[in-house]
Amino acid sequence: MIKLIMLVVLGSIACKSLSGHWPWELMRAADRSAAEARARSLLGVSRSATREDIIEAHRRRLTQVHPDRGGSSEAVHEAAAARDLLLARLSERQLR
Q: Burial of 54 by CB count in 10 Å (0-12 exposed, 13-18 middle, 19+ buried)?
């Protein structure tokens, strides 16, 4: 058991020294980028989309999935979450 713990610790230190990030930071970044990719796919925007592009894509998506047009409220919530995520990431990038 001690050997396993030592291997995990040494592996974590090696990851930090090679990539500059701890393993759990890399996993979290991968999850964030996957969520962002899903949001971009849902709204149909590129990585270089501006704030206005994201908002317009959200409006287009809402016209497709709105409950009054045969869609569902869940799809509306997904579109809103995608918009919010992409706008938050855009703001993060602009602050850097």
A: buried
Structure token digits, residue 75: 């799809």
Longest dimension (CA), the chain: 61
pLDDT in tens, 71-95: 899 999 999 999 999 999 988 887 7
Place of tokens 């287009």: 60
Residue 78 tokens read as 């997904």
Q: Which tokens in the block code for residue 33?
A: 């980028």
The DSSP call for residue 21 is S
Topology given in CATH for the domain delimited by 2-95: Helix Hairpins (1.10.287)
| Predicted structure pTM score | 0.71
Query: How far are the Cα atoms of 11, 54, 62 from residue 8, in angstroms, in the given order?
Result: 5, 42, 47
Return the domain boundaries, the chain. Answer: 2-95
